[in-house]
Known about the structure:
By secondary structure, the protein is α+β, with helices and mostly antiparallel strands. Among the domains are: 1-52 and 130-279, no CATH class; 506-642. Helix content is 44%, strand content 13%. The chain has 23 helices and 16 strands. A five-stranded antiparallel β-sheet has the order 6-7-8-9-10. A three-stranded antiparallel β-sheet has the order 5-4-11. Strand 9 and strand 10 (246-251) form a beta hairpin. Mean pLDDT is 80; it is low at 607-612.
Amino acid sequence: MSDGSDFVLDLYSKGVNEVREELRNYWLNHSFLLGYQWTYWDANTRTIDNVTSEGDRIQATMNRTRANMRVIMANLTQRELTFENLPSSFDDATIRAAKLGESVVEDLRKTHQWESMREKHLTALMKGGTAAVSVDWDSHSKTTVETVLPLGDFIVEPGTITDGSRARYWIRKQVLPQNTVYAMFEDYFPDGPPAATSLTSMDPYMNRVISGSTTESNPRTAVYTYYERPNPLCPEGKVLVEVDGKIVQHVEKWPFPFTDRLNISVASETAVENRWYGATFMDDVRPVQVALNATWSNLLEHLRDAGSARLVVPSSAVDYINTITDLPGEILEYPDGAAAPAYLTPSQLTGWIREMPEMLGAFIDDLMGVHDVSRGMAPANIESGLGLSILAENDSSPVGRLIKEVVRTWSEVAQMSLMLHEQEVKEERMAIVSDGVSRLRMPWKGKDIDGQILVEIPLDAVIPISRAAQIARADKMMEMGLIEDPVMYSQIANLPGKEDIIAAINPDVAKARRENAAFADGDLQLPAEFDDDEAHISVHNDFRKTQRYELLDADVQEDVNLHIQAHETAAASKAGRAQSQHEVAPALAQAPNADGSMIDPEMLEAGMPEPPPEAPPMPPMDPNDPSINPMVAVDQALAQMEQ
């Protein structure tokens, strides 16, 4: 099939007609964020054009919209996406498959730069009110390809009143360099590259000033991809690619493992009932930004034309002006009967005109939900971390729905990506399951995911948080006695660089955590003579209570158990040696040891009977006695572990 007769292009044009007004607003909002704010919609040419400057009139641009947008983006992307894959049951095999799927999604988040894509998705969402993320499979790299699509780069079947991802079909528009398209589909164009698409056809609403390029200097060609999922009109579904009126690719069967939805997730900034596309607060902000620019332009013109004091002199005194010097106390003479020279005071603007920029700026802040707290500025009389946290939560409420849309969109993207990997990955790959401290290497194939694709992003994991509020909460918990040590405090307060803080406060806890990570990675760890056995046993027992430990192989779990037993034996040996030293001489028990251990002599005294008047002679020490030499006990435990 080579001649499509513009089949896909015709469908795309019908879809564009449905969202024509939203596309116009998208490009106007796009130009405003870039700083092109003296623009308007020309109904005759159906393009965005610049407002012509009249003579020396000032056209000031005070881009408060972009400043607020940067604050919003900083808050919304403050925390990285965190995914949870909920197992369908709680047997070991299902939990292991769910953890595997979770690690695959986390790997995609990092390697495919989902965090950068999330920022682009949010920007497109706020500019156009509607944006989507598509998921496709790349047969060359053998992984998924996620793409952010602003409104205009995609449309769904016109008339869809439900979620756009549940429509019958959707079309993606790409505008690529002409030679790139020719290299991709050379066989279909034997006479040379396909025709370049005019700028008006590519982006009818985009000003040439904004685009920064023309078809003459950078020829580009539009590529339209049509996705239709299985339905009564097309039971098998299909995928078509059309270039310059020709179908250059035709997949006769729906290639995705899901049929109840399209391979996109559509989000809206403000939902509008009975239609698949939404609206955006930027449409309300734009007119206020225009008024703000006009007000500042008027004030600046007043400053230029009427803001300077001028000297008024009688015409008869003009000849004497040149004789004026800057000598202090100079005597100036002017003709008799003429009025004395005087400065003409500039006209004063009314108060409401001077206050107008501030009022308009505050109105824009209200529309966008950005105030002093959002910018990191504490209001008067509010100093506590909890108070600032409460204000920050209320301040972010206008974009609270946007956070939920982000969570839903990227959860769906993760689910679709995981399902494609389950279907397409036939060769063995390696996944790293990590909880931030320990990690587990898991070889896997697509079938090992075993249908565990209920990936979700916890809402609490992406809502902006206040570090001051976290520290205030940790302080309160310490006052109540719920926090017992600085290590626990640094974790609950989520202090920056908490791992370094823990290593400095309690190096034994940090070392035991590293050993847990090594155990999860399959590496055998041996106790050291200088370890704080009590601290190591506590940290290792916490690890044995985690799900990560339950996923380890039985022999690795046994290694952990023997490691803890070795610490028990070493601790008992150190205590026995300290007591033996105390029996010989109380001062000897207080001497520092190479292993770092030292028993409080008062504890030994409390648990010992009164010594006889004359101490018996010291028995000879057996170097093979574990109570005398703790390394003998350690060697015995290691030998048992190696068996």
